[in-house]
Amino acid sequence: MESLYLGLPPPLVFKWRSDHPRTCGRNLGSRQIEMNVMLLPSHPHDHGELADRLRHADVATAELVADIIDGVCRRFPSLGQRGKTARVEHLIRSGAWTDVALALIELELPQWQIRRIAYDEGEWHCALSRERELPDWLDQSVEAHHPDLALAILSAFVDVERIAAPSSRTSVPAVPHQAGAPYETVYCDNFG
Predict the structure, then answer these.
(1) 0.70 surpassed by pTM
(2) Backbone phi, psi, residue 116, to 5°
């Protein structure tokens, strides 16, 4: 008689492993890696601080790219787009910084496109735009420049993320509780 029960299921083997970008490329010491479930940055950096670091950096490094991802990327690692996330991780491991920057724009800013990349007088100029087909004088593009191409693209990326970041302000402006000097009451009497 045949058994009604199936045999033991085969053991599960997970082929895809998500490496955090900070571990890609090189060993960064004894830093603890934070893996958060939320898609918001785990510890948001000041965008101005990241922009300054990009401006003063000579070349892109795994640590700098990981700080950018930690600080401004809201969709990385993307749960719905594992292929794009795996591609970014592979590019970071490979050290292909320009391709990493382009892949981050594709993943994080799907409505933005590169409008212009130009090399002039020793610097790369990168402009990102939502409306590439509009004339330059009508388009509101975000521009950045740097001697390194990857850092010029990443600088424009950080600037766009700063503009597109959700603000923590309320929709109704706050009113100060105490009136300042120009708003103090003055006693007036009609002497006429």
Answers:
(1) no
(2) -155, 135
